[in-house]
Specification:
Length: about 140
């Protein structure tokens, strides 16, 4: 009887461990497949918003004209950001006023990150997923 119980326990443990390993493998493979799938360009265009061109001055006295393409995670977020363009302009004017010519030339990625994070703070219908500079002129 003792040998029978030991065999049953060993068999059950083997099955449980096998099931757990299978679940872990399947979950990891499924996640990796989803991460590799890029959003289609049609979806990106559908959820993107072109900001108005904004002309303002830098701390160094130079004038800049800049425009962004904001990518959102939904149609509702795209519509909301269109209504919040005044907040986008305000964020840009404040941030650009602290930059000089060299900062503007070299730190556009940082400016894009700031715009993204500051807009996400005020968004209620989704998020900004990415910000691209699509037009930049400095005088």
């Amino acid at each position: 009887m003792n040998r029978l119980v030991r065999t049953i326990v060993t068999s059950l443990l083997t099955l449980v461990i096998g099931a757990a390993l299978t679940a872990v493998v399947l979950l990891n493979v499924t996640d990796e497949n989803n991460e590799g799938q890029a959003e289609s360009i049609d979806d990106i265009v559908e959820h993107s918003y072109d900001s108005p061109e904004i002309t303002t001055d830098l701390q160094s006295g130079n004038f800049v004209r800049i425009q962004f393409k904001l990518l959102t995670d939904s149609d509702a977020a795209r519509e909301e950001i269109g209504k919040r363009d005044f907040q986008l302009k305000n964020i840009l004017i404040k941030e650009l006023a602290t930059m000089d010519e060299e900062d503007f030339k070299s730190d556009l990625s940082e400016l894009e990150d700031i715009v993204k994070s500051r807009l996400n703070e005020v968004m209620s219908e989704g998020n900004i997923t990415d910000v691209y500079t699509i037009n930049k002129i400095m005088q």
